[in-house]
Amino acid sequence: MSEADDRELDALQAVLAAEHAAVYGYGVVGGRIDEGRRGEARAAYDAHRSRRDALTRDVRDLGGRPVAASAGYALPFSVPDSVAAVRLAAELEERLAGVYSDLVRAADGERRAAAAGALREAAVRAARWRGGSVAFPGLAERGGASSGRSSGSGSSGSEGSGSEGSDAGSSGSGASGSGPSGSASVGPTG
């Protein structure tokens, strides 16, 4: 396997780990969100399950063994109500945009186009959940300037505002890509 194929496989594994976490996270969102937005949460949940399944096939196509989902994930903050559920959904989508941007960088051809489409979809969902958007989805958290969050890639910022509870910067997926694989997932509970 070439170095480029290794980078692509690592990026695919990171995105797969992030999609596993998003599926888990949307399970929490669905349990707490108001009835008026439950359909939106269900559509996002279904979309992430579908992407997760496609990514599993992509990893196998490249000769890799797909990273497994963790049994549970630590949420980045407490989700006691619908307001927090909406915030969690936006957070999940923003983090996914970050790892999809890494896959766009690592892939080419059809896979790159699919990753760019997934990045766009995550950015649109994040904007809908948040009620606003960022100039460059998937890149805002890297600088930490607009969101106040660390990218999980070695910068020294803090996760969230300090009132959010546990750090979710590590996916625990075993993916060894150079991108912020942990930035797109809620952390595994161990």
Topology of this protein?
Elements: H1 3-32, H2 35-61, E1 73-74, H3 82-106, H4 109-130, H5 140-143, E2 187-188
Antiparallel strand pairs: 1-2
Helix pairs in contact: 1-2, 1-3, 3-4
- Structural class call reads mainly alpha
The total count of helices amounts to: 5
Helix content estimate: 55-70%
Look at the structure and give the mean pLDDT.
Answer: 79
Strand order of the largest sheet: 1-2
Strand content: under 5%
Please compute the radius of gyration using only Cα atoms.
Answer: 15 Å
Principal-axes shape call:
globular
**Number of E strands:** 2
Low-confidence stretches: 142-185
Order of helices and strands: HHEHHHE
Amino-to-carboxy terminus distance: 31 Å
Biggest sheet character:
2 strands, antiparallel
Oligomerization category of the chains in this entry: single chain
Question: In summary, what is this structure?
Answer:
The chain is mostly helical and 190 residues long. 57% of the residues lie in helices and 2% in strands.
Task: List the keywords.
single chain; 5 helices; 57% helix
Describe the structure.
It contains five helices and two strands, in the order ααβαααβ. It has 190 residues and is an all-alpha fold. Helix content is 57%, strand content 2%. The chain is globular and about 45 Å long. The termini are far apart. Strands 1-2 form a two-stranded antiparallel sheet.
